[in-house]
Each structure stands twice: as structure tokens, then as C-alpha cells.
Amino acid sequence: MSKWWSGKSKGNPLGYKIFVWCLDVFGLRFTYLILAMVVSYFWVFAPKVFISQYRYFNQRLHKNPFSSVFWVFRNYFSFGQVILDKIAMLSGRGGKLKFEFDGEEHLQTMVNNGKGGILLGAHIGNWAVAGQLLKRINVKVNVVMLDGEVEKIQSVINQQTIEQPFNIIPLKDDLSHVIMIKEALRNNEFVCIHGDRSLSESNTAEVLFMDATAHFPLGPHILAGKFNAPVSFVFAMKSTLSTYHFYASAPQSFKLPRQADAKNNVLMLSLNRYVSALESTLLKYPHQWYNYYNFWNR
Known about the structure:
The protein has helices at about 15-25, 30-45, 45-60, 65-90, 105-110, 125-135, 145-160, 175-185, 220-225, 260-285, and strands at about 100, 115-120, 140-145, 165-170, 190-195, 205-210, 210-215, 230-240, 245-250. Helix 3 (about 45-60) crosses helix 4 (about 65-90). It has one domain (about 15-290). The chain is about 50% helix and about 20% strand. The strands form two sheets. Strands 1-9-8-2-5-3-4 form a seven-stranded mixed beta sheet, sandwiched between helices. Strands 6-7 form a two-stranded antiparallel ribbon. By secondary structure, it is of the alpha/beta class. It is found in: Cell inner membrane. InterPro entries: LipA_acyltrans (IPR004960).
């Protein structure tokens, strides 16, 4: 099994539309029950994904073999709930979801300082909910994502008579997204980027994460240093059946030195801060880890 993300995620526009129909007919909580049957199928008939998550619970979190099997099911079910909540929020059907905030003042400070900022998240919790919640700050939000993911999200939004909660910056090979990110920061906007996935070993660094080495992309940290943009680590975690807890760290800014060794030291300091925040959050919500491939080096 590859230790690199393929750049593709499960799911398709039709699946999103079916879930929207279920939400309309049955409501969010009853759709969770329907979800349990779907989850049971993947729990049994998706061995590659099962192995990666089993190793996470057994080797990284030190669960015993028997309980690790059921933690995988809990992880699948949690992921399904997050997808449903995301669809509910994007389609204007998330009225019953509640939200708690921890560090919202840090984001307001970033806006008040007039420099925008980079919000560095991960494939844990629910990034779509985080983007929706940032409307409270009264600032334009941009989400950087791969073209394939753009199509899926846009298909949901286009079918609904609601305002798009965030602007999408497509991640492309021609690096046009860098120009768009620079412009957004110049306009005092937020740019949301995931900092935990890489398509290859290039432009990554190996760090200790959950007691084992793993590669993390340096790209988001390079962008932050290049544009001298404040960086806040943000995670929106599902704390109860209907509640999300939004976390935002105090922003930090840095410039990249020209000298290679000094530049690398600054980047590694930023990366290690991010990895530490990610690990602390995962220890609180261990079942909300949604990287379904061999993440750790072996």
C-alpha cells in the first residue's frame, strides 16, 4: 500500500445528491441511522482502508487488536457523519447543528491587523463547517483544494439556492493558485489550506508524529513565510452528535531567510508547531482521523 495520498477521494456528485435527498426526506439524525448500514459495508469490504486505520489505532494509539477493529468502525461512522454534516451545511440544512468556539478572538485580531492570514487545518474533523463558521468574523474565506474536490463541492452548492460560504482556489500544476493566494492575502482575506497531505516526497519534511516518523508538506509554511502572512492552526471537531468545537491557535508570522540552513530551520520550526497542534487535537478526538492511506513511514 502506498504511503502517499493518490490525490483522489472517495465519493462522487451523485452520492452527494442522494444524501441531500435523504436529508430532505428523513432529516439529519435519521439519515445517520441509514449511514450505519453503508458504514458496515465498507467496514467489511474495504480491506485496504481497514488496514490503514487498524494500524493507526493499534500502532499509533496502542489499542489492543480486538478494540482496534471496533475503533475502525467508529472512525468510519464518524467520517460518514462529517460528510452528512458538510452536505447539510453547504445545502442550508444544518440548522440543528450547534457550535462552540475556542480562539475566535485570534482570528478577529488577524482581520483587524489588515494582513489576512493562512488558516492551516488538516483532514480531521470537518473543514467545511470551519469555513461556514468563519462568516462570523465578517471576512472573505478562500479554501485551497484539488480540482477533483472542487467538482464535488460545487455540485452540491450549484443545486441549492444558497450563497456559497467560501471562495474556492483550485490547486493546479501551473501554480496559478499561488498568485490567487497572494491576492487574497493582500485583500485581508483568509486562506484555508490543509497541511497534512502530500502527493509525493518532494517538498516535504520528515518529522515525529504520534511516536513515528511521517512526511508533511512544506508548501503551506513556505507560502506563509514568502508572503509574511500570519498563520493560525484551525480545527473543527465533532464533540457531540450535534455539536462542533472550533479551535484556532494564536497567529504567528515569520519571514524566510535567504540562507539555506536558516531558511530550513524556520520552516521546520513552523512545521513542528503545526504537527504538535495536530497531535494534541487528535489525542482528544482519536476517531476523527480521516487520512485513509499508509500515512506513517515503515
